[in-house]
User: Which sequence fits this backbone?
């Protein structure tokens, strides 16, 4: 399951939690659980709750309990990100990186990834490391990229573990170290990360 689908699954679970914890007395006013979840997220969003704002954004992207609305999705995601919700900050980074709903801008993408990364979100640390390592629209900063790959890898984030192993295997800004490379690839492979499994089989 890719990162985006994992995040959507987590948010779907959050919808259920929020609904179960809501003050709604009856389902009779709603035609479906989606409508109830949408109403709960909208209530929270209007109250300034960043999780509610992010939930409304997700619903607008996916047409869950409401019509698909890209502009509204970006608006609510930005609100949640500005209120400090790490998942929303990462999503804003993704949107600017992909040019989805906004004009592509790698500098802004890196800015949002960094905000989420500094809160300890492993996937954001990984994305920030990619921006720094590839030097897209920002200066290539391999040393800092390695730092963020390492932080994400230490949290068990398999793509970061694979990338860190690759850095050591090929000596990308560091001295080649096949022992460390194999260590990180093995950790990623143990989570079912296919590229790491192939790397172990083919390269070392």
Assistant:
């Amino acid at each position: 399951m890719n990162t985006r689908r994992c995040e959507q699954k987590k948010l779907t679970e959050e919808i259920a939690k929020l609904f179960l914890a809501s003050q709604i007395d009856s389902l009779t006013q709603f035609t479906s659980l989606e409508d109830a979840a949408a109403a709960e997220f909208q209530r929270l969003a209007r109250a300034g709750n960043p999780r509610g704002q992010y939930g409304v954004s997700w619903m607008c992207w996916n047409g869950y309990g409401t019509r698909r609305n890209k502009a509204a999705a970006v608006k609510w995601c930005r609100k949640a990100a500005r209120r400090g919700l790490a998942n929303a900050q990462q999503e804003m980074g993704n949107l600017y990186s992909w040019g989805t709903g906004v004009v592509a801008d790698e500098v802004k993408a890196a800015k949002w990834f960094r905000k989420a990364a500094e809160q300890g979100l492993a996937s954001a640390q990984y994305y920030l490391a990619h921006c720094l390592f590839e030097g897209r629209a920002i200066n290539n900063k391999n040393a800092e990229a390695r730092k963020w790959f390492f932080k994400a890898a230490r949290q068990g984030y398999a793509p970061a573990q694979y990338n860190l192993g690759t850095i050591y295997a090929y000596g990308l800004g560091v001295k080649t170290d096949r022992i460390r490379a194999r260590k990180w690839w093995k950790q990623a492979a143990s989570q079912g990360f296919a590229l790491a499994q192939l790397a172990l089989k083919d390269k070392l």
Residues 3-20 form the longest helix (18 residues).
